[in-house]
Amino acid sequence: MDSFTDRATEVYRARKPTASPLWQCINSHFDDFLLGYSDKYEHKLGFLRPVIPQTISHFLECGNLEKGFARVRCGDCGHEYLLAFSCRGRWFCPSCHQKKVLLFGEFVTGTVIYPVPHRHYVLAIPKMLRAYFHFNRDLLKALCAEAHASMLDFMRTTLNLPEGVPGMILAIHTFGEYMDFHPHLHALVADGLFTETGLFYVLPPVSLKPLNELFRHRVIAMLKEKGLLPEERARMLLSWKHSGFHVHDSQRIQPSEKADLERIAQYIVRNPFSVEKMTLNPETGAVIYRSKMNPKHQRNFEVFTPTDFIAAITQHIPDKGFQLVRYYGWYSNKSRGLRDKREAILEAQIRPAGLEIIDVSEVQLRRVPSRKWRELIKKIWEVDPLICPRCNGEMKLIALIDERSIIERILRHLGLWQEHEGARAPPPKSVETALIYEPDFSQPFPDYDNYEVLYAE
After folding, report:
1. Rounded-to-integer distance, Cα 264 and Cα 189, Å
2. HSE on the CB side for 448, CA within 13 Å?
3. Domain range enclosing 172
4. Against a cut of 0.90, is the pTM above it?
């Protein structure tokens, strides 16, 4: 029995989704948001994307016992509680997305990246170009491609390795500190180049100015080629000394600093907003969102009307199937698949003098098993959700309940059923119900990982 079972006073307590200020704001004001969208928001945000009402419908049902649950019982004393199904929504539902964040950190550090130095890069574009990406989300894929090509050219030129391969994980962020539309890229990048023979050439200390210029020229050329950027504006952006294109990097992260690598991997796929930063005025519905100091307004908060807040956060929900995380070079799905099928053979080659070279030809990355719901709760809260709060015995999942009649009968017996008047209508039938977003993971959740504890008493 692990150390968690010795913590009798540290019992996992259920979350109550309806107590969240986010749930309350959306439940009370989303219909108003929909009714006023065409007049108030369409000119700024474009047509209402079908994925928005679909995601909201799933979110409002997340953790709702009336939508189904698992029964969890203690084998020693018979104590039982119900474990509500979750929506599994990524990039919006704070609870469900946090599970993906934790899994992604473990997946990246355990299965994808190699034991070589890495850096965290941020690549940003000028404010005047943001609208192009706002109304054409497919351009975000092209932005990633130009970022990868810029990094590839920069590293190959610096190391004089024309056949070198970078290892790069790119995450698309569409949000700023206060949920404004601010498209930029976060990248976890191996600090050098791999060769087919399994050697890694470490990038020496070097200025990022050439990389910044490569990125600027490539993005401008891409927008011109697509007929979006007029020649005059392109020349203007190329002539400005401070053009608004920025490439920033972090300090080098060594392979031994695995906790830092995992933290950065989690950071680059964080949710666009944080419930902890929200304060909801119950009388007016206004939302105060506190974050970093806004240099423009000289304050560390913004006040939103409820519908403005909903508009701000829902604009960052990705369309179905759109991948917000992309893998390039040595870390691409194709490259990883090929390495799984063949043994790396180290061949003799001329090694440039003065460069640090790491042999990774025999590195075997482990497979990260799927994290169970119990283990994720332990990782976050350091308490065990399957330790009985009454006797400290071991609890087990004994049944999955998803039939409406049985759900109602059990909840009525427990006094947990609520009568609803004017229930919210489901999203249109033309909108598919599956939510499949990146990051993709090598192993799926077991079924019981998709539940949240709602009642533990």
Report:
1. 11
2. 17
3. 115-273+316-359
4. no
Whole-angstrom distance, CA of residue 285 vs CA of residue 305: 7
Residue 414 falls within a domain, yes or no? Answer: yes
d(CA 192, CA 254): 12
Of 396, 372, 414, 457, which Cα lies nearest the Cα of 76?
Answer: 396
Asked whether residue 335 falls in the same domain as residue 390, the answer is no
Whether residue 439 has a cis bond before it, omega within 30° of 0: yes
Q: State how far the Cα of 139 lies from the Cα of 185, in Å rounded to an integer.
A: 13
Alpha-carbon separation of residue 349 from 198, 242, 429 (angstroms): 11, 42, 60
Report the amino acid identity of residue 359.
Answer: D
Q: How high is the pLDDT of residue 345?
A: 44
423: tokens are 């229930």
Q: How far apart are CA 56 and CA 171, in angstroms?
A: 23
Same domain, 186 and 262: yes
d(CA 59, CA 92): 8
Instruction: Name the residue among 229, 217, 230 with its Cα closest to residue 146.
Output: 217
Separation of alpha carbons 125 and 370, rounded Å: 36
DSSP single-letter state for residue 69: E
- Helix/strand number for the chain, H first, E second: 13, 15
- In terms of domains, do 163 and 75 share one? no
Which of these three, 359, 389, 415, is where a domain ends? Answer: 359
Q: Judging by beta carbons within 10 Å of its beta carbon (0-12, 13-18, 19+), is residue 242 exposed, middle or buried? A: exposed
- pLDDT average per 10 residues of sequence, the chain (457 residues): 38 71 97 97 95 96 86 87 84 92 93 96 96 95 98 98 97 96 98 94 95 97 96 92 91 95 97 96 94 86 97 97 96 75 47 65 57 56 69 84 87 81 50 33 32 33
Domain count, the chain: 2
Predicted pLDDT of residue 15:
67
Asked which of 359, 389, 413 is the last residue of a domain, the reply is: 359
pLDDT at 416: 82
Look at the block and give the residue holding tokens 């994290």. Answer: 371
Token pair 């609520």: residue: 418
* Side chain identity, residue 339: R
Query: How far is 425 from 400, CA to CA, in rounded Å?
Result: 25
